[in-house]
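tokens incoming
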């Protein structure tokens, strides 16, 4: 849904033809047509041929373009100038190759760039840092090499950064802690404001957009909590950094904890060394932390115990040592979260694990099971039960003694008749 604002972007058709079985090419005549298409979503079809790049260069044609999940081939033209009016560019999961070197300017309105799952090569363009309106940058599963440009830190509105599964090297740029949209711990419903510039003829229209809950992406696949999930819509509170499966070295920035609003952090499968920064304990919104398969050393910071939202943790296959912190969420994870660290000890690892001292949490059970467990663990329950039966029998005897003689005779005659009636059945059963 187009976000409400005081002004509306240029009018045009909305062609939402995604998730069908369309085949063939996109007709070149679309570039020559006088018809404006505000949104063009052809995701998850069987289209092939080449992408008509004029749709991206001509800001009067399409403002939101999603061609992901097709079979487009070819290379991106050299010197491709991204239109200053296009806000969404999704061409993921096709068969494109070559060097990715488009030209970005300060006037661009881009909010979403997803070029994941291709064979793009070269280095990440520094001009990306000029896209002040960018919220989502996904370049995963390509063949990009060289360093991560420090200009990434200029993206003040960036919420999702996914550069995983490439050949990136060097260290994590320190400027990454300057990502302002990830530095504030927001609650659901936070109003995320942004300014988007649309070109209308020779003039530009500046639109301030209030995104109270979510904004449209057209489908974003992201690995969170160890599982790849698809997000058709993204809450304004969702923030993530995924730099996994690269060749990054050096240390994890010690003040990474400045990103207090970050919810998902994945730096696994690199060659990072040094310690786990204590500042990570300041990430009060962190839900998933994966630092596995690196060369990290030292102790696990006790500050991680304060991460009350942490639901997924993987520190395996490093050189960590010392004791596992035994507070907060830390003892709720299985030993797979800590395995592969020969010098690490403490529960849930078998080495120096003393559960009586640090008792594991009881499994969730219903009230009947819980009552039964308590009865087994407290022998006084059975003793009390015996006293109850004894007291009841004694009360009956006292009542009979104190009753009138005629009542006692009737009571015992009734009991005698019941026994006479049941005795033949008992004898037959025993035979």
């Amino acid at each position: 849904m187009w976000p409400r604002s005081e002004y509306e972007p240029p009018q045009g058709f909305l062609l939402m033809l995604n998730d069908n079985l369309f085949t063939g090419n996109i007709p070149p005549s679309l570039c020559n047509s006088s018809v404006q298409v505000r949104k063009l979503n052809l995701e998850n079809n069987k289209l092939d041929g080449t992408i008509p790049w004029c749709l991206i260069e001509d800001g009067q044609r399409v403002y939101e373009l999603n061609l992901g999940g097709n079979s487009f081939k070819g290379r991106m033209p050299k010197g491709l100038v991204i239109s200053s009016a296009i806000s969404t560019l999704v061409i993921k999961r096709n068969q494109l190759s070559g060097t990715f070197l488009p030209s970005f300017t300060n006037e661009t309105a881009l909010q979403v760039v997803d070029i994941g799952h291709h064979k793009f090569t070269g280095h990440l363009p520094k001009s990306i840092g000029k896209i002040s309106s960018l919220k989502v940058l996904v370049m995963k599963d390509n063949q990009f090499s060289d360093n991560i440009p420090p200009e990434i830190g200029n993206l003040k509105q960036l919420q999702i950064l996914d550069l995983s599964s490439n050949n990136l090297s060097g260290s994590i740029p320190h400027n990454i802690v300057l990502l302002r949209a990830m530095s504030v711990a927001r609650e659901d419903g936070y109003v995320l404001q942004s300014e988007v510039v649309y070109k209308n003829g020779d003039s530009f229209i500046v639109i301030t957009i209030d995104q109270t809950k979510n904004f449209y992406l057209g489908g974003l696949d992201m690995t969170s909590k160890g599982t790849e999930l698809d997000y058709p819509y993204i809450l304004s509170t969702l923030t993530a950094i995924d730099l996994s499966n690269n060749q990054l070295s050096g240390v994890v920035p010690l003040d990474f904890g400045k990103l207090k609003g970050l919810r998902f952090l994945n730096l696994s499968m690199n060659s990072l060394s040094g310690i786990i920064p204590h500042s990570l304990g300041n990430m009060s919104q962190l839900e998933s932390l994966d630092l596995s398969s690196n060369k990290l050393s030292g102790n696990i910071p006790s500050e991680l115990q304060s991460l009350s939202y942490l639901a997924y943790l993987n520190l395996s296959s490093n050189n960590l040592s010392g004791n596992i912190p035994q507070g907060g969420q830390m003892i709720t994870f299985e030993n797979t979260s800590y395995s592969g660290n020969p010098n690490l000890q403490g529960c849930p690892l078998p080495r120096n694990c003393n559960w009586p001292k640090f008792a594991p949490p009881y499994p969730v059970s219903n009230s009947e099971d819980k009552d039964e467990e308590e009865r087994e663990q407290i022998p006084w329950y059975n003793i009390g039960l015996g006293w109850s039966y004894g007291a009841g029998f004694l009360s009956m005897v006292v009542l009979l003694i104190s009753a009138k003689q005629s009542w006692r005779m009737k009571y015992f005659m009734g009991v005698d008749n019941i026994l006479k009636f049941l005795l033949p059945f008992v004898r037959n059963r025993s035979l």
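note: Helices lie at 29-32, 54-57, 367-377, 380-402, 405-430.
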